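pinned: reference chain
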Amino acid sequence: MTAVRVAIAMLALALSVTVAVAQSREEPPSLTQARTLYDAGNLEDARHVLQALITSGTQDPEVFLLAGVIDRTAGRLTDAIASLQQATALAPRTVRADVELATTLAWNQNLDRAIALYRQVLVEFPDNIGARNGLAFALAWQGQLDDAREMFTTMTKQDPENVSAWIGMGFVERASFHREEARAAYQRVLTIDPTNSEARTAIAALLWDRRGESRVLPGLSTSPDAPEGGEGRLDMSYAVNRRVTLLGGYQHYAFGAATVTSGGGVLTGVRTEDSFEGGVIVRPSPRMTLAASAYTFFSDDMTRGIIWLEGVYTVNRHLSLIGNARPAYSSTEQPLFAWAGGAAIAFTQSHQVTARALVATDTELEPRLTLLANYDASFSTRLKVRLAAAQSSTDERYEFVNVGAGATYLLSPSFGVTADVGRRFQTAERSTILAGILLRY
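pinned: its structure tokens
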């Protein structure tokens, strides 16, 4: 009998649990239910509940506020901004909604709007920690490092245990190339919170931070009906500050030369050239990058110069628009002008595809249209890979396909090995292989 009673009791318990679960599933969606799921870490289930409430026509700003926070956490920044804007429309002058919206705008690189909204909150609530902290980070991301440093310093003095402010100090010092100061800030974070993963990751990354680097690549090139020739390249870059990077380079190479009078597809010999490059990259804002490079080529029978101007506008985290202008000058030919337009798509922070179409104005000297594509990937802190392709078929005199690949592997934060290979088909055929070292300082 005892066994029977135990079995009956267990059956009754199972039935009661089943009924309770069924009842909970039949509960109408509510903000309380969504908050319970959110607090438990079930973000997608919470989002489904909130979407049901929104579909039903709710006008509760708290629903849109929580939906925006969940979408931001999941990386759906456009949806998050829309929900948070609805929350602020339903409840104007709600500080929490304004701060969450400003934070999401900053994450989406809408820094001007985010800064304006943070400042608006602080006019009425100057001691709001969320707005002060968010404003300091937004200023840092916008490149206003001195203003951000001042704000973070004030916050750490007022509250020496403010982990977020110390994280911000570390970011500002790292962006200013002050590695030891950045390390001290992150170490302070770990003193307060030994489990803080953001500080640990930043300290590990600091080992690899450098302002400049130089690549030295000797190699070989071959062309049809031409002997194998030596080739070499030196590339240099140096970050003056967060906004300005200087570029320089030198290259010696030989290639199959063609002339316009004999037709662009007819090789007439081998030309050896030396090329010097100088350039600068300027970042006037987080969304805009401008670059200018000048190349000068010297050979026995010709001196040429090319200016390559480029502007990149970041639309969002995944899409950037690119515009180029390329005037070219020669001691034996008239000036050549070309323009390019394209886009870069970043699938993740470390994988990006870039495509451009280069349109020339003088088809007697170069093809009308050339398509350019690049794939850049960072597989780790140590390994970076680049693939490139160019193709033109608008004029048979200049038809070509060019493919190339390069890789860099860092053996230490200051030293690595690097290699580039390339192959051009059809007109002016040429193969190149270069391998050398990378120095970082």
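why pinned: Residues 17 and 23 are 10 Å apart (CA to CA). The domain at 2-206 is CATH 1.25.40.10 (Serine Threonine Protein Phosphatase 5, Tetratricopeptide repeat).
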